[in-house]
């Protein structure tokens, strides 16, 4: 499957830049893990988020090396899961919405994504990724308005996302002038978006509460 400017033939190494730049997701996952660990907020829910971020990078590497239909699934599905889990965590643990409202937020994102999939042929698939951009716009606006920790981080991520989407969209258009294309810039920048989003979430979590123990070995209930 040849859908990017850099690939001009078959082979595992036909898209070296597109493949290598997926390391940005792995770096984002590692940096988020370290941040959460140092802040004492490396909870199971954060571990899942970090693992999903890493899986985005792995799936995209497979897609840009193997370029097969099943690899395309591995490239797209982890992104969807990452955003869904992120929206759930943010609405539940930062905004402290009720489960019903958090589920509704996730449902709105999924509905927008499935509608956008019907127009995956428009602008080289850019519309498929606009629901993710809208998530950042909405959550970033709420986060900044409420002056939470890392007040403008999500809005900064929104700007980076918009730039990344621009470079993804023009990849095929610049082939005559730039044979390597610009898709690799999408990977590099969207990896930064993933880190900024996770950073904002992690720094709005308090340290994980650990049970306290008395001198005689009895557990002291929290709260």
Give an overview in words.
This protein is mainly alpha-helical and 223 residues long. The chain has a single domain (16-205), classed as Up-down Bundle (Rhopdopsin 7-helix transmembrane proteins). The chain is built from eight helices and two strands. It has a two-stranded antiparallel ribbon with strand order 1-2. Helix 3 runs antiparallel to helix 8. The relative contact order is 0.16.
* CATH topology annotation: Rhopdopsin 7-helix transmembrane proteins
The low-pLDDT segments are 209-223
Query: Which class of secondary structure composition applies to the elements?
Result: mainly alpha
CATH architecture classification: Up-down Bundle
| Most strands sheet | 2 strands, antiparallel
Percentage of residues in strands:
under 5%
Q: What is the H-and-E element order?
A: HHHHHHHHEE
Round the Cα radius of gyration to an integer and report it.
Answer: 19 Å
The whole-number mean of residue pLDDT values reads 89
């Amino acid at each position: 499957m040849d859908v990017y400017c850099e690939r001009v033939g078959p082979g595992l190494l036909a898209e070296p830049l597109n493949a290598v730049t997926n390391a940005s997701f792995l770096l984002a996952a590692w940096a988020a893990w370290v941040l959460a660990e140092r802040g004492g907020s490396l909870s199971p829910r954060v571990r899942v988020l970090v693992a999903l971020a890493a899986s985005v990078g792995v799936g995209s590497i497979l897609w840009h090396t193997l370029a097969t239909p099943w690899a395309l699934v591995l490239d797209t599905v982890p992104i969807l899961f990452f955003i869904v889990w992120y929206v759930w965590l943010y609405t539940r643990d930062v905004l402290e919405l009720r489960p019903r409202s958090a589920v509704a937020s996730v449902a709105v994102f999924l509905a927008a994504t499935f509608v956008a999939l019907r127009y995956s042929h428009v602008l080289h698939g850019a519309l498929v990724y606009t629901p993710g951009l809208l998530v950042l716009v909405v959550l970033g606006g709420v986060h900044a308005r409420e002056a939470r920790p890392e007040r403008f981080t999500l809005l900064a991520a929104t700007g980076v996302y918009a730039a990344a989407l621009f470079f993804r969209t023009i990849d095929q258009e610049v082939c005559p002038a730039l044979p390597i294309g610009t898709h690799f810039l999408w990977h590099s920048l969207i990896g930064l978006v993933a880190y900024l989003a996770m950073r904002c979430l992690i720094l709005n979590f308090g340290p994980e509460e650990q049970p306290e123990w008395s001198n005689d070995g009895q557990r002291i209930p929290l709260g």
